[in-house]
Design brief:
mainly alpha, MetI-like fold
């Protein structure tokens, strides 16, 4: 996992070769994501099974030709449920991480470039949120609001914006000393225009690194909350909920936990590797 302290502030002082390598990496990553989405769409169209329809005559079948990853205790195809579960685990994590990024970046920008009273208020609020582990805070919020998918999304958004706010503020304070920011203020440009044209373009790469890592963390949080009963509710296919269903059959049908666990592991590992590679491409070399 990438630490906030290791992220670059602005991508400057790089030669053309480094910029070209970064562009190639981003293009390859985008193509890889598009290929994955295409394969995912094809899998949704080609699977002959419904993820939530029970078939008791086929319950607890081992992986085979008819059911590549076997069936669960209700006879539902595990492979189909993992495919549909990606929409919940990965898709919801994408929505949550984007919402948290938007909220956190706005707060961080206003704290770093705005009035001091807002900086002090927002950072003290951020520190109070950091006093509790994110997953524990999300469990508490979900427990108060009640177990449901909507409440889980709200809880995770409420605990995911702080890292973006802290990072954005720290990078914005560095940019405040740059000549082009000082010149823009002397020209009396509107505050929102300075943020949009001058701050955000210099922050986007560092924030992108954090976002890829936060996306993977959110997948783990969704799976953890669903495993504890606070997230996606049955009969919806979600990787954490599938782990709960397979827990009772861990000795007799271990594949019910192995395959959803591998789906979580591979997805989180892939996102972390993308974030680490992106960090390596944009991090300024140490003299």
């Amino acid at each position: 996992m990438t630490d906030i302290e290791t992220l670059p502030s602005v991508y400057e002082g790089s030669d053309g070769a480094e910029l070209t390598a970064l562009r190639r990496f981003l293009i390859r990553t985008g193509i890889g994501i598009m290929v994955f989405l295409g394969l995912y769409a094809m899998a949704l169209l080609l699977t002959p099974y419904d993820p939530n329809t029970a078939d008791f005559l086929s319950r607890l079948q081992s992986p085979g030709a008819a059911h590549w990853l076997g069936t669960d205790h209700l006879g539902r195809d595990v492979a189909t449920r993992i495919i549909y579960g990606a929409g919940w685990s990965v898709g919801l994590a994408l929505v949550i991480s984007v919402c948290g990024a938007v909220i956190g970046v706005l707060i961080g920008l206003c704290a770093g470039a705005g009035p001091q009273w807002f900086d002090r208020l927002s950072m003290r609020t951020t520190d109070s949120f950091f006093a509790f582990p994110e997953l524990i805070a999300a469990i508490a919020i979900s427990g108060i609001l009640g177990p449901s998918t909507g409440n889980m999304v709200l809880a995770l958004v409420m605990v995911s914006w702080m890292r973006y706010a802290r990072l954005t503020r720290s990078l914005t304070l560095v940019l405040n000393q740059k000549d082009f920011i000082v010149q823009a203020r002397l020209n009396r440009l509107p505050f929102w225009l300075i943020l949009w044209r001058h701050f955000l373009p210099n922050l986007r790469l560092g924030l992108l690194v954090l976002w890829t890592n936060m996306w993977s963390r959110t997948i783990l949080s969704i799976s953890g909350l669903s495993f504890l009963g606070f997230g996606v509710q049955p009969p919806q296919a979600e990787w954490g909920a599938m782990l709960v269903d397979g827990k009772a059959y861990m000795l007799t049908a271990p594949y019910l936990m192995i395959f959803p666990g591998l789906a979580v592991l591979i997805t989180v590992l892939a996102l972390n590797l993308i974030g680490d590679q992106l960090r390596d491409h944009i991090q300024k070399p140490v003299d």
